[in-house]
Amino acid sequence: MSEVPKSEEPLSATIARHYDNGENNLSARNESRILYLRNFNNWVKSTLIQEAVIMLRNSRIHDGKMHVLDFACGKGGDLNKWRNSSCMEHLVAVDISPGSITNCHSRYEEMKRRNKYLFDAQFIVADCTRVNINTLFKDPSMKLHLVSCQFAFHYCFESLQQAECMLKNVSENLVSGGIFIGTIPNAREIVRRQKECGKKQFGNSIYNIEFMCDIDKPFPLFGAKYNFHLEGVVDCPEFLVYFPVLEKSVYLYNL
After folding, report:
1. What is the pLDDT of residue 66?
2. C-alpha–C-alpha distance, residues 53 and 145, integer Å
3. pTM for this structure?
4. Contact between residue 97 and residue 124 where contact means Cβ atoms under 8 Å apart
5. What is the pLDDT of residues 3-60, one digit of tens each?
6. Please, are residues 123 and 93 in contact by the beta-carbon 8 Å criterion?
7. Of 21, 83, 135, 180, whose CB neighbour count within 10 A is largest?
8. Please, are residues 98 and 16 in contact by the beta-carbon 8 Å criterion?
9. Dist CA 66 CA 62 (whole Å)
10. Binding-site residue set
């Protein structure tokens, strides 16, 4: 009798489990060898958010009551960045990891205890590359002024269908004149380093990249999978984002 092969675990479950088990210790973080990289990444996010808020404030489309959707919110590391936006009224925080959402919600409640005035918030566990996120909103008709996806948008490039679902989740929920901001790995730099070494795997004592697709053929526009390890932070599959494809795709969704 032949054995029925076990079905492979969905990649989304692998990613969610990885972030569920992620480190949440401040003292350990401060001793990390990548502390300055983390600080730089935080500066990048703070700058993007600040610039977007200023643009929205100048456009006056939110009347001092800004609504924000934060895709891949993680454990809530950006909550203070949103709190510092004086016009903030409502945040929808979404992540694929139940553990991260629990931490994010707890951090929000602690902030609420310490601050007399704080924006309202909703916390959702969902894979935004596979579901229409507004069906999970408390108010499905709510429109947003700003959508942010920091260091996570590349996960939707697993397939064309997932990228389309993600972009639909952005465009359908933004008001006219709203802004979408995000940060992704530089695919050109990753490919350059791979071509330079000529191997599937490369890196150093801090990071390691191993391609899970055929490097002897042109990389596919979607599904160009590699495993990314960054000390103490990431150890899971990711996907290359060919930026010209992203630029063309967003225009199809009126972004």
Report:
1. 94
2. 9
3. 0.88
4. no
5. 434 445 667 666 666 566 655 565 566 778 999 999 999 999 999 999 999 999 899 8
6. yes
7. 180
8. yes
9. 5
10. 45, 72, 95, 127, 150, 155
